Amino acid sequence: MDKGDHISVTLSGASVNGTEEDSLTTKQPQRRSLRRSWNQLPRCQRNLIILAVLALCLTLVLVLYNDQIDAENNRVIGNNGGAFLFRENREVANSAGIVQNGLSDGMNALDAGNLNNNLKNPLPNIGPPPLSFSNDNAPVFKDVKVIDTPNLNKKSDDNLQHAGERPKESLLQGPLVEFPNKISIQENNDNRIDEPAVEAQSGGGDDDNRAAVEAAILNPRVVPGTNNVLITDYINNMEAKLVAQKQHFHGATNERQTAVVAAFRHSWNGYKKYAWGHDNLKPLSQSSHDWFGLGLTIVDSLDTMYIMGLEDEFTEGREWVSNFLTFDINRDVNLFEVTIRILGGLLSAYHLSGDKMFLSKSIELGNRMLPCFLSPSGIPYSDVNLASMSAHSPKWSPDSSTSEVTTIQLEFRDLSRSTNISIYEKVTHAVNKKVHALEKTSGLVPIFINANTGTFRNYATISLGARGDSYYEYLLKQWLQTGRKTDDFLIVDYMRAIDGVLTKLLRRTPKEQHVYIGELINGKDFKPKMDHLTCYLPGTLLLGHKFGMPTSHLLLARDLLETCYQTYMRQPTQLAPEISYFALTTNEEQEIYVKPNDAHNLLRPEFVESLYYFYALTGNRTYQDMGWNIFQAFEKHTKVAYGYTSIGNVKHIFNTRLRDMMESFWLGETLKYFYLLFSDNRKEIDLDKWVINSEAHLVPLRNH
Ligand SMILES: *[C@@H]1O[C@H](CO)[C@@H](O)[C@H](O)[C@H]1NC(C)=O
Ligand SMILES: *[C@@H]1O[C@H](CO)[C@@H](O)[C@H](O)[C@H]1NC(C)=O
Prior knowledge:
The protein is mainly α and 704 residues long. It has two domains: 119 residues, no CATH class; 489 residues, Glycosyltransferase (Alpha/alpha barrel), CATH 1.50.10.10. Helix content is 50%, strand content 7%. The protein is built from 26 helices and 18 strands. The radius of gyration is 24 Å and the shape is globular. It binds 2-acetamido-2-deoxy-beta-D-glucopyranose (2 copies). The site of one 2-acetamido-2-deoxy-beta-D-glucopyranose (NAG) has 3 residues, from loops. One 2-acetamido-2-deoxy-beta-D-glucopyranose binds next to loops.
């Protein structure tokens, strides 16, 4: 183990080649400068470094036993990769990525045999979704009682042990839940899932899409599929019944909500003063940071301000969008990030305010992102230049992230449904179909997919954290968005995936029985590591359960929520780290621990999001109290004179290492979820009418 740690240091030093120091001093989540430094190195020097790294890896591979290597390798990647796992995860673009690839290439040769067996494991048989989905929601409070049944407490699992069949291969210390969909399986004569009809993979459909995209991108200011009708003319002539109805909110009604609004205004005022029109505020240096050049913080904040009743601020933001937001910007942006933040933000602002200006902007942005879908496979390229309208894979890899290509559909579909322009939904639903057709491991997906071949990267990690997370989220949410059809392949994939989570990724710590979701490195080696990003899952699971998903989802949701809460409360700051590790054996000192490189907190929303769903769907105010503890921790440790900042270390209250960055999701997501969590009206947002995207933006549910 010592050896492994030593190796990791050597590797990162060699590969990063001096730039690591920069990253430590600047403490930025974005890795652009690293990549630039890397790119600026002469080619031969770069090649030399890569060769050296590869040689080291080969040596490693030869010297150590297969299993040992796996274990150590996981740590190496953990240490290097940890610092780079940001939600803006394309920014992994740096030499750590290369180290990782180099290592795993070495590993792949060795482990190919094992892995193939693993991949060929038949999918567990689960039944079709319950046929009795009614369009009325299951009664909320009745469901909730199940959560709070004392029997289900993790410390009294005996009851469950008899009730539920324990999956044989599961390494859980105690059974968490009954085997998913047991009833469906028993009721079904043949255990195979009836594959819902999915249109043919190739042929006319794809070619039609391609031709339509090629035509659409000739001029992004006209409406695709029309004879050069300008977007503004089209919008102005839209039938009145198609236009969104203005929604009404009343503003804060209690002290906690008032405190959240104050935190929002403090953040907004700092941003306005020092970073207006730029993507992010750097509150310590009183400067700004640009990533896409799209005024990210403004667009991400619009619906939050609308919901909080901050009319003046909303109007300021609206005026900026109307007068200054332009997409004719000559730089590469990330399709996924721009979709969930900017397109999602604009659509949400449109649906809440009924202001058609936001819809016009959305159409132009949609058009400018269409080039991503001109890849040979239809799996979108990750990056696009919105001015030149050319798209490509990330510079550092041929692959797109799986979660990225599967986390654009809610927004593109909503754009199509809101405008009656079909192209956006068509191209992104084609991605759904492609990914559905690919072979998976118990419904779980590798985190990389190739836009040229349309296939997963072999031996890529399986994770519900960075690069994997929202694939699962959008399976459920798309099904909700489109009227919860029982023959929808997305919901079948979702159920299968959660089943895979239960059998392949779920563990309990040996002493305190904390339930967590680990990762499969190279698609097979379990690693007891959970990103904070994964803490969105309890909320999503509970949402699914409200709409008919099995009890197993509810139980997992409850246990995971508790673990996520512990990742906050066990830190002296009461703020969670980016990544937590869990004990595998009773010999380990701590059941939940944090590695030094993973101890940062970027003001992320995922756990608060889950608390919001728990409160909204159960009405239990305990979740508000949990959220209030965390809100106060943010106030205490991240608030600075001109905003709130990411911190580098949650493990010490006197050494939090302020990072000088206020991410747009702090305003767009974290504060919005806090505000809704503390509402006296848990249905302030009606989850029977709205679905909330991966960046906390609202789009309406449709009936088909
Ligand atoms: C939507 O577009 C189709 C043609 O593509 C048209 O037939 C239909 O009437 C339109 N619907 C609305 C509500 O404008
Ligand atoms: C509310 O939730 C907490 C935490 O899950 C639980 O301990 C408590 O029993 C619940 N209260 C009610 C009234 O259901």
